[in-house]
Amino acid sequence: MVKMKKLSFVSVILSFCGLLAFWLVMSGHYDPIHIGMGVFSVLMVMYLNHSLRRYSFYSDEMDDLINLRYGYLIYYVAWLGWQIIASGFHVAGVILRKSLPISTYIVRFKADLPSAHARMILGNSITLTPGTLTIDIQGNEFIVHALTTKSVSSVVDDSMPSRVARLFSKEKKAIVYDVRFYSSPEELA
Fold first, then answer.
1. Same domain, yes or no, for 40 and 132?
2. Rounded Cα gap, residues 57 and 155, in angstroms
3. Which of 50, 58, 51 is nearest to 120 (CA)?
């Protein structure tokens, strides 16, 4: 683990103000009792999370964010939004039409992604897409639950992982390898 730099006073004040503003907007109540509860809650959250800021758990944790292609991030978010909508319709169709079979799978695959952030983005993108759920990530190996084979198609055909990799690099290469489908959790062992 790498020791993280100390938080500045300005950073703490900005975090406090941002969290309190979020609290006030979400609560919608501006009387002294609610504002007091908001101040107390924000102080507790900041105190409890302070120990989490002491250590960085991956040495590449901050360095890879320098390489993030923010222009491509806008494209990726739009593409992911479209995938979420299309998958939502697919899942609704599978549930509403009895003629479409629900045959759940567990998919294990490896992804050659450049950093822990890239793996986190891929895992969260898979989970956000209806019909799929990231069960576990160990190193470069992902275990995903899928409602149907079509639900996980954008992962195993490398379209989602390659887009995640392009958030950090312009290089195009195959990301997913060693894909295996399992029809029951017992087969994983």
1. no
2. 27
3. 58
**Distance of alpha carbon 170 from alpha carbon 35, whole angstroms:** 47
Residue 48's Cβ-count burial label (10 Å; 0-12, 13-18, 19+) is: exposed
Domain total in the chain: 2
Of residues 7 and 126, which shows the higher confidence score? Answer: 126
**Residues 10, 28: Cα–Cα separation, whole Å:** 27
Average pLDDT for the chain: 86
Q: Are residues 52 and 68 in the same domain?
A: no
**Backbone CA torsion sign across 153, 155, 160, 166:** negative
What confidence tens digit (pLDDT) does each residue in 23-67 have?
999 998 899 999 999 999 999 998 888 777 666 555 555 566 677
Give the three-state DSSP class for 146.
Answer: strand
> Domain of 28?
2-57
Q: Do both 12 and 36 map to the same domain?
A: yes
Select from 41, 57, 73 the last residue of a domain. Answer: 57
Query: Distance between CA atoms of 133 and 143, rounded to whole angstroms?
Result: 9
Domain CATH for 159: 3.30.70
Instruction: Assess whether 177 and 128 both reside in one domain.
Output: yes
What mean pLDDT is predicted for residues 165-189? 85
Residue 89 has pLDDT above 60, yes or no: yes
How far from the centroid of its chain's Cα atoms is residue 6's Cα? 27
First vs last C-alpha separation in the chain:
31
